[in-house]
Known about the structure:
The structure is a homodimer. Chain A is an alpha+beta fold. The first copy, chain A, has helices spanning 4-15, 21-28, 32-44, 77-86, 111-122, 152-158, and strands at 48-55, 64-72, 90-96, 102-108, 125-137. Mean pLDDT of chain A is 92; it is low at 148-159.
Amino acid sequence: MLDDLDRRLLEILVKDARTSLKELAAQVGLSSPSVSERLRRLEERGVIRAFTVEIDPLALGYTLQAIVRIRPLPGKLHIVQKLIEEIPEFGECDKVTGDDCFVARLFVRSIGDLDGILDRIADKAETSTAIIKAQPIRRRPPPLDATAPRDKAKILQAS
Amino acid sequence: MLDDLDRRLLEILVKDARTSLKELAAQVGLSSPSVSERLRRLEERGVIRAFTVEIDPLALGYTLQAIVRIRPLPGKLHIVQKLIEEIPEFGECDKVTGDDCFVARLFVRSIGDLDGILDRIADKAETSTAIIKAQPIRRRPPPLDATAPRDKAKILQAS
DNA sequence: AGGCGTCGGTCGAGATCGTCAAGCATTTTA
DNA sequence: TAAAATGCTTGACGATCTCGACCGACGCCT
Lengths: 159, 159
């Protein structure tokens, strides 16, 4: 479904999406039309979701990030979700199992901004906020190589 | 520090980082060498952190994602952080204020994998895990336009 | 076994794109 | 006020991408 050459191409592109077809071709040992075709298909299949740039939020004045756990009040789930989606300062939001329904990332320019945004959902949900002090790991893709068969189920069976 | 043209360029590139200089130039009304120079400086200044591709984890077999809150046991903070950084399935990790020291995102192929990875830090930290059921907002940058001056501090002063 | 369609690859030519040097207008600085 | 620094445009050159034509391996059917 995704052969070794594909994985190598992805690995290179994750590091620099502007790598030329020629360069990609050289690194994996194909011709550039072949690489072009492979990329086209990776995109078509949705493996590559997008070519994009990563922007430093600080450069835009967003000096603060926070992780917010959100528990909508009974009956307010959909309204809360819609609200979150419409507030552009939410840079990420996951719907999760457990007491907290949503876990979201917030980019703000100041503590005042943070307060202002949380106020907008305060009457529809309980929130708990954690300010981000450092980012030991910034967004990175999972391992591309097909290793990591450390499935615990097998270990359990074995014992 | 970042003028309107820069912001428009970024906005286009976030949507498609492969947009040609010619196309960018046409859309903002400059010549391509000018655009090239602007991009060069945006990169140099660190505003653009990287050109990259966004990969669908599902395409790589990672059918499960989880948000893990991690509270290292006394004295184990650094060991835990190092461990997290070294486990490639952690796709993101923030160090935050509050009881939970770290909040991390985990990409796994199965529940068994999840268990296996959590076991590796179980003796050094308390963890609480939430499985991701849906992603209402996938990673997106904060608003590029300089609006959003909804600073609560001012509102407080006004009242 | 032989023929045939498909898939994924190469090659080469033409079109497109990026980069460089030169030059110009505007603003800042001395 | 003159000089220097910015930031832009233009045009030409070199590199890159894309398209069509062609080729070989593989699987399938008769």
